């Protein structure tokens, strides 16, 4: 199952000096689903725990997302299509 990434990059996250957020608050802040938060947690998104409750520092999360996006390999412009090869 592939999780689509929909982060509202048009918001100035770096300028905001916010308190640590809960997972629900982070969902609202980044405008992404809880499923995406869970996927990012598995991928190593920075977080810490207060007792059993998970918390996120917004600036660290945004930095992590930016680094993660910068290291992604973009797909080639033209992908292999076997139907085109058969029609030759």
Brief summary of the model shown:
This protein is mainly alpha-helical and 88 residues long. It has four helices and two strands, in the order ααββαα.
Textual characterization of the structure:
The protein has about 90 residues and is mostly helical. It has a domain at about 25-70. It contains four helices and two strands. The chain has a two-stranded antiparallel ribbon. A hairpin with a 2-residue loop joins strand 1 and strand 2. The radius of gyration is 17 Å and the shape is elongated. The two termini are about 35 Å apart. Residues about 1-5 have low confidence and may be disordered.
Features:
mainly alpha, 4 helices, disordered N terminus, two-stranded antiparallel ribbon, elongated, 88 residues
What layout of secondary structure does this protein have?
Blueprint: H1 23-30, H2 34-42, E1 48-50, E2 53-55, H3 58-70, H4 82-86
Antiparallel strand pairs: 1-2
Sheet with most strands: strand arrangement: 1-2
Write down the overall mean pLDDT.
78
Q: What class do helices, strands and sheet pairing give? A: mainly alpha
Low-confidence segments, given as residue ranges, are 1-5
- End-to-end span in angstroms? 34 Å
Helix content: 25-40%
**Largest sheet descriptor:** 2 strands, antiparallel
């Amino acid at each position: 199952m592939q999780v689509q990434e929909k982060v509202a990059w048009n918001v100035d996250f770096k300028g905001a000096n916010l308190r640590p957020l809960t997972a629900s608050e982070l969902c609202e802040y980044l405008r992404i689903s809880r499923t995406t938060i869970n996927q990012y947690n598995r991928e190593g998104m920075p977080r810490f725990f207060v007792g059993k409750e998970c918390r996120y520092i917004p600036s660290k999360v945004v930095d992590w997302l930016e680094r993660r996006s910068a290291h992604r390999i973009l797909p080639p412009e033209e992908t292999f299509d076997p139907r085109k090869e058969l029609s030759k």
